[in-house]
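Shipment paperwork, digital attachment
Item: protein structure file
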Amino acid sequence: MALPLALFVLLLQPPVDPDATAAPDLVELVSLDSTIRLDIRYATPDNFLGRPVYSEARAFLQRPAAEALVRAHRWLKTKGYGIVVFDGYRPWSVTKVFWDATPADKKHFVADPSKGSRHNRGCAVDVSLYDLRTGRTVQMPSGYDEMTERAYPDYRGGPRKARRLRDLLRRAMEREGFSVYEHEWWHFDYKDWRRYPVLDIPFSAIGKN
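Attachment content:
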């Protein structure tokens, strides 16, 4: 049975939140601190889809969230670590691709496009740590985007050092107003995410200043 035209159109457009009244101000993270590292997996085939979904390896957040991330990064540097960013702002159309490609029993790892993602609002960031001494990304209890219980931020298995570093990352982010997602140690939402609208702006349309 064919979908009614109005419903079909709605499924192709991001949802509108009438309470999200803040003007978007997406800022490129490395423009604020060039020592934040990028590992934008969705610009490569090294992700759960096995193919690139971004045309550019760039990362953005709304300015207050970006500035908070920089503060977390600089605090971590006093502990011998820095932040690696896997993803920040994500266009809504990419969230729909993720949802459509994810099996029903794994959908708690991805956002429902009918509601929009906090990534779509520019107020969620996926991060890990790198060791300042070696320059290498540290081992965590699971891989990035691993859809298993090892990804849970309260998972008690795996190497003790990996859990300690996961918890250090969480402490740094929580100090600056982020909260961890219950199913992913790497995913953090900024406290003011509700203020910003769901966006579907491509990276190419965001300025490089």
